[in-house]
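Hey,
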Amino acid sequence: MTFIEVETYEELSKKAADIIGAQVILKPNCVLGLATGSSPVGTYQQLIERNKQGTVDFSKVTSVNLDEYVGLDGTNDQSYRYFMDHQLFNFVNIDKEKTHVPNGCAADLKAEGAAYDQMIKDLGGIDLQLLGIGPDGHIGFNEPAPVFTAETHEVALEESTIKANARFFANEDEVPKTAITMGMMSIMQARKILLVANGPAKKDIVEKAFFGPVDPMVPASLLQLHADVTVIYSKN
């Protein structure tokens, strides 16, 4: 594991964009696993700028996102499909047909999860997976649990996750209570993993996840067992 500590969020975003940009340059038709939330926004802004400058070309890239709220379709401004369109996809030369987000409105979420896992396998797996980390150590929406869940699955969101995400909604009651999330198998099978964590509020959980025991009650701790993980943490 490579652990990089920087002073500012801007430095974090630049370093993360350096790593993702290098992946795209080295393998133009790579499969990128992408994340939502506030932590990757600066990284996406950096990638948009590099695409405009012509240094990073997304035309052959395929993307797979980690998760989606159950019940929100891509037209809802709080859905993760909407987030990705408005934070990255609409501003770079990626083929929208090759951008994938789990369908939170699927009639059969178990079947949707199985199909999502199969799609990732059919793509040859994920070359680089970008992750954030929740205050309870969740990655994607893999919440603390007695065991790690391998497959893409529906999950009931922890109260702490709902509270953390309430800032994006009019009030806490509007935050969906369930989501569909990529499981730990597809995440751990990614060839490279890049996790970004911003600010002092993430300091304790970063230390617990990466310098404590591997424990399904801290889902991110499983990343300690991956052969190629880079963690970028900004102190401020």
